[in-house]
């Protein structure tokens, strides 16, 4: 089961990263060109939001079914923090990614509360772009391409 969830989490991540990139570029280009915020812009941003939230749920399931969780429990928090691999898997990756998905959600929520097109593009563009950078910073690249 663990390997299936890990594969889903890894492959779904490509979709999340691609959709966030598209949504951020779309919003920032809309902001730069001063165009109207259209239903298509809303859909692009919403799909990226949905994909990122699904990724979060799959990630939480992955942590729960991870066989290394027992090692982390035995080691305790001090032991996990001393082991770079366990720290990445159980602390850094989940924490930074939760922060990133929170920023995506904030960007989405802020865009709904304003009527000005420029502010809609700005809240989505900046928050999604920051979230994308955070997500890219904590991907376990060595594990991803092995």
What does it look like?
The protein has about 150 residues and is an all-alpha fold. The protein has one domain. Helix content is about 90%, strand content about 0%. The longest helix is centred in the first third of the chain and has 32 residues, at about 1-35. It has helices at about 1-35, 40-65, 70-80, 85-110, 115-135, 140-145. The mean pLDDT is about 95. It is built from six helices and no strands. Helix 1 (about 1-35) packs antiparallel against helix 5 and helix 2 packs antiparallel against helix 4 (about 85-110). About 25% of the residues are buried. It starts with a helix and ends with a helix.
SSE ordering: HHHHHH
Helix/sheet category: mainly alpha
Q: Segments where pLDDT lies below 50 for 5+ residues?
A: none
User: Tell me about the biggest sheet?
Assistant: none
Which strand-content bin applies to the residues? under 5%
Number of strands: 0
User: What share of the residues lie within helices?
Assistant: over 70%
Q: How many helical stretches?
A: 6
Question: What is the first-to-last residue Cα distance?
Answer: 19 Å
Please tell me what the overall shape is. Answer: elongated
Question: What's the pLDDT, averaged over the residues?
Answer: 93
Roughly how many Å is the radius of gyration? 17 Å
Number of domains: 1
Transmembrane segments: 12-32, 44-65, 85-109, 121-141
Keywords: Membrane, Transmembrane, Transmembrane helix
Protein name: 50S ribosomal protein L27
